[in-house]
Amino acid sequence: MEKVCVFCGNQPESKTSEHVLPQWLIELTGNPKRKAEFGYKHLENGKLAKRKFSFDAFKFPACKSCNQSFSEFEAKTKGIAHKIITEDPLSSSELSTLLDWFDKIRIGHVQKTKIIYA
To answer: Which pTM does this prediction carry?
Structure first.
């Protein structure tokens, strides 16, 4: 199967791995090795089995340029997440950034689902 960037869908020239959920969030919310279920896989006997991944291993190919373009965005979002945890108020700009980040995660999840089920 051809590897494609989880963000743009193109074949990366210079490849990195991207956690669909960022490593800082995985570590912030618990044991990075904990298992999560993401969809199903078809077994040879025709049955379905849940796909299980540890959060720290749940990563996909990304273009180096796509991955780097999101690094500042991730840093801003990490600061916003800490403000939420400490119950500090968010500005409208920070709320907009957070909503944009949710979209990035959603798009990454949709793209990785296409990769898994292709």
So the answer is: 0.69
